[in-house]
Amino acid sequence: MKGEARILDLLNKVLTVELTSINRYFLHARMYKNWGLDRLNEHNYKKSIKDMKQADDLIERILFLEGLPNLQKLNRLMIGEHTEEMIQADHDFQLEQMVLLREAIEASEKARDFVTRDLLVDILDYEEDYLDWIETQQYQIAHMTIENYLQANMSDED
């Protein structure tokens, strides 16, 4: 089934964001692990795996629409140097991603490509939930101080 060029272009843009996201959250996970922040490591690692599955779904959809998935392009990772900066960068990244997803959903609706629309809505739902988690982390930092927040995200082991 030949997909519309505009839809394929947007799917590749969303794929680029997902591939970027895999790398950023994986690196953040390993930074948190290195710092002993095991709960943040686990949460970011799971996010990178989820993004990998979303990228796989996008690749399959692009191929089904007889397009060529572009796996060679990544956006800037925007990696923070400390926890607050990392969480803020994640917040900004999520907001940018959601703008693109909404644009792609709207274009899919206009093209009457409801399968692509459903795929993108599923991704958007997950990303909105993740943004909510990030905003909860920012709230906790603001109200319990960064020191207490970091201590709360360390492992209970040792």
Automatic annotation (TrEMBL):
InterPro entries: Bacterioferritin, Ferritin-like, Ferritin-like_diiron, Ferritin-like_SF, Ferritin_DPS_dom. It catalyses: Fe(2+)(in) = Fe(2+)(out); 4 Fe(2+) + O2 + 4 H(+) = 4 Fe(3+) + 2 H2O. It holds the Pfam family Ferritin. One of its GO terms (biological process) is iron ion transport. Fe cation 2 binds at E127. It is an enzyme of class 1 (oxidoreductase). GO terms for molecular function: ferric iron binding; ferroxidase activity; heme binding. SUPFAM superfamilies: Ferritin-like (SSF47240). Residues 1-145 form the Ferritin-like diiron domain. One of its GO terms (cellular component) is cytosol. The keyword Metal-binding applies. Its EC number is 1.16.3.1. Gene3D superfamilies: 1.20.1260.10. Fe cation 1 binds at E18, E127. Keywords: Heme, Iron, Iron storage, Metal-binding. Its cofactor is heme b. Heme b binds at M52. Iron-storage protein, whose ferroxidase center binds Fe(2+), oxidizes it using dioxygen to Fe(3+), and participates in the subsequent Fe(3+) oxide mineral core formation within the central cavity of the BFR protein shell. Belongs to the bacterioferritin family. This is Bacterioferritin. It comes from Saccharospirillum salsuginis.
